[in-house]
């Protein structure tokens, strides 16, 4: 079984840390539905149990929307866990790019040994039909204050983790071109939840344009469809199209666990990914399963 680097997962201890999206009532609206099933501790032992069959050789922690008042506290906690448990091997921290302390937080995150990238989910519109590139929504990819904070990433050497729906990918392409020194890692395939012929065609067009920017990588993850179980048949069209557009050298698998555990087991996701890419050359499979993530997050194999 070829080795895997899980390039995007979470851990949390709800007794030790505060995650408003998980703990507050009522639950926030979420693309997969009710999040109450996630209100339990999820620690390295739980991830290792879920991934026991998969030959996972390293992992990358993704910030889990910890208390926004202190994004560095989450980073310090993850370092303590990694020192004790042996994972994660790298991480993406949080920074709020439109806040006055953005530059200070970015510098502090960059000084942490495991931090390779940062995430701040930009504001977006809920539907493709509502997207208007002329609108500069506060906190969005086109927001001047947000972009002013983003500018500091280039000096820090950190990558940016972008989670936004595909209809905002024209903004992402502009961002990539305006700041070519910062690597953007698109989370969750641009969230292609609409699997109608029209929805897939629009997603494909947006991804094809984005692929023209060389400073882009794509995570083959987080592509669950609400109300439907994760299957290779459901996911192959978006996974294989992303690989075709970006190439194996710019694509990496990830579990998004435990969040995607709402609709799939760890084995269903990773066995499914292996099945989807089984027809590719072994060198490409190795890149997608581990090589791209190792290179991107500077993980020694």
Could you explain how this protein is built, in words?
This protein has a single domain (4-296), classed as Metal-dependent hydrolases (TIM Barrel, Alpha-Beta Barrel), CATH 3.20.20.140. The mean pLDDT is 97. The chain has 301 residues and is an alpha/beta fold. Helices cover 37% and strands 13% of the residues. An eight-stranded parallel beta sheet has the order 1-2-3-4-5-6-7-8. The protein has helices spanning 20-23, 44-50, 71-85, 102-110, 144-150, 152-156, 169-178, 197-210, 232-246, 266-276, 282-296, and strands at 4-9, 56-62, 90-94, 115-119, 159-162, 184-186, 216-220, 251-253. It is globular, with a radius of gyration of 18 Å. The protein has eleven helices and eight strands. The two termini are 16 Å apart. The longest helix is centred in the N-terminal third of the chain and has 15 residues, at 71-85. GO terms for molecular function: hydrolase activity. Belongs to the metallo-dependent hydrolases superfamily. Residues 5-299 form the Amidohydrolase-related domain.
């Amino acid at each position: 079984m070829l080795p895997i680097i899980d390039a995007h997962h979470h851990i949390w201890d709800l007794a030790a840390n505060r995650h408003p999206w998980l703990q507050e009532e009522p639950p926030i609206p979420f693309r997969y539905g009710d999040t109450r099933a996630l209100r339990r501790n999820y620690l390295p032992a739980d991830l290792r149990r879920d991934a026991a069959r998969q030959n996972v050789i390293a992992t990358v922690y993704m910030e889990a929307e910890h208390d926004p008042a202190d994004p560095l506290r989450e980073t310090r906690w993850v370092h303590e866990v990694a020192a004790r448990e042996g994972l994660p091997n790298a991480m993406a921290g949080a920074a709020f790019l439109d806040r006055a302390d953005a530059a200070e937080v970015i510098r502090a995150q960059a000084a942490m040994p495991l931090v390779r990238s940062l995430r701040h989910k930009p504001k977006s519109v809920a539907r493709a039909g509502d997207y208007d590139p002329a609108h500069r929504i506060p906190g969005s990819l086109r927001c001047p204050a947000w972009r002013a904070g983003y500018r500091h990433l280039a000096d820090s050497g950190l990558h940016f983790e972008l989670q936004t729906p595909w209809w905002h990918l024209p903004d992402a392409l502009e961002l990539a071109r305006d700041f070519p020194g910062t690597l953007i890692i698109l989370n969750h395939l641009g969230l292609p939840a609409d699997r109608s012929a029209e929805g897939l065609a629009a997603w494909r067009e947006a991804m094809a344009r984005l692929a023209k920017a060389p400073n882009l990588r794509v995570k083959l993850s987080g592509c669950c469809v609400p109300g439907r179980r994760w299957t290779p048949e459901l996911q192959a069209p978006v996974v294989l199209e992303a690989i075709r557009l970006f190439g194996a050298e710019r694509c990496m698998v990830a579990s998004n666990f435990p969040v995607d555990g709402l609709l799939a087991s760890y084995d269903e996701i990773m066995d499914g990914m292996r099945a989807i890419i089984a027809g590719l050359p072994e060198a490409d499979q190795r890149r997608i399963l581990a090589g791209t993530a190792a290179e991107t997050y500077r993980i020694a194999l």
